[in-house]
């Protein structure tokens, strides 16, 4: 016989309604009680009847998550954080990868919204003029893009980029290059603006190349452009481009660090495994994913509340082996 909610309630000596609230992740049950109920339910092998719960509550206990490219190292930490946080709330995550096709985002979101209680859209590539159509699929939370009238988790690039430019200036670099990301990327527009402001404040010359796709091969192509100019330091749109850049510069006979400094953005796991290890701007993807889950579930519980919250998360520089004092002329 399958273990029922009533069986769990008898085992813990509490009412069925309290057990139901605890297992559904509601904030109306204190943490100690919730953990006790979940532990006993797990030990007894209790499995909630999702169909019955959906019919009773009108909810699916599903969260939809849409990402541009699941293979990009920027997104897995966010995905894992969303899944982990959702699990603690008794929710399941459905993931859709649009494979960097902006035209697919709204259609995928429409289909998914029919099955889930709320949506999280990470780094949407949808053109700005079409964003209101996407934002109308409430409850919805955007990560890494600010959308008017919608809840957002913004990863603020300016502080980390300022730290990176100051770091390079302190090492004696005077001419810095920024390798732009995709033209459609909201993150790139923010990072580009932060680069220009930081270099202007520190009286440094800024050279820009791109746009480039967030791929290692893009960094390989960018390296030949960098090599053709009198540049001693490069900040790339992301770690993927930075690592492709380092590989090609090494092939061209340059020593990354002593001859040219390279900084990436994202602080992906690969940055610590590169040779030399990659100095990178840490992006709090794990915090962003967990925060997005909290926001979307709050919107599910309070759909008519306004205004929609916007949470800002800061970035910071992680110094490793790919930056060094500027070479002497």
TrEMBL record:
SUPFAM superfamilies cross-referenced by the UniProt entry: lambda repressor-like DNA-binding domains (SSF47413), Periplasmic binding protein-like I (SSF53822)
UniProt entry keywords in alphabetical sequence: DNA-binding, Repressor, Transcription, Transcription regulation
Family matches, as InterPro entries: HTH_LacI, LacI/GalR-like_sensor, Lambda_DNA-bd_dom_sf, Peripla_BP_I
Signal peptide: none
Pfam families in the record: LacI, Peripla_BP_3
Domain HTH lacI-type residues, every copy: 3-57
Protein name in the entry: LacI family transcriptional regulator
């Amino acid at each position: 016989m399958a273990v029922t909610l009533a069986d769990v309630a008898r085992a813990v000596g509490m009412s069925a309604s309290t057990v139901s609230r605890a297992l559904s992740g509601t904030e109306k049950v204190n943490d100690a009680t919730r953990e006790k109920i979940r532990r006993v339910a797990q030990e007894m092998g209790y499995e909630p009847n999702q169909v019955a719960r959906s019919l009773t509550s009108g909810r699916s206990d599903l969260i939809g998550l849409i990402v541009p490219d699941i293979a990009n190292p920027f997104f897995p930490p966010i995905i894992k954080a969303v899944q982990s946080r959702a699990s603690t709330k008794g929710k399941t995550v459905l993931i859709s990868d649009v494979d960097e096709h902006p035209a697919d985002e709204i259609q995928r979101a429409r289909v998914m919204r029919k099955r889930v209680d709320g949506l999280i859209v990470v780094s949407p590539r949808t053109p700005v003029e079409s964003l209101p159509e996407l934002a109308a699929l409430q409850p919805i939370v955007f990560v890494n893009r600010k959308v008017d009238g919608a809840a957002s988790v913004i990863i603020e690039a300016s502080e980390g980029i300022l730290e990176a430019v100051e770091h390079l200036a302190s090492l004696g670099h005077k001419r810095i290059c920024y390798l732009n990301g995709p033209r459609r990327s909201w993150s790139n527009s923010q990072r580009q603006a932060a680069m220009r402001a930081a270099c202007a404040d520190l009286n440094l010359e800024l050279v820009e190349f791109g746009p480039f796709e967030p791929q290692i091969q893009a960094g390989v192509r960018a390296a030949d452009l960098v090599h053709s100019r009198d540049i001693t330091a490069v900040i790339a749109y992301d770690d993927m481009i930075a690592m492709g850049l380092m590989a090609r510069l090494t092939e061209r006979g340059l020593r990354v660090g002593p001859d040219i400094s390279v900084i990436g953005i994202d602080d992906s796991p690969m940055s610590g495994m590169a040779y030399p290890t990659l100095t990178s701007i840490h992006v709090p993807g794990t915090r962003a994913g967990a925060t997005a889950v909290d926001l979307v579930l709050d919107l599910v519980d309070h759909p008519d509340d306004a205004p929609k919250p916007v949470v800002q998360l800061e970035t910071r520089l992680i110094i490793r082996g790919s930056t060094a004092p500027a070479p002497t002329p």
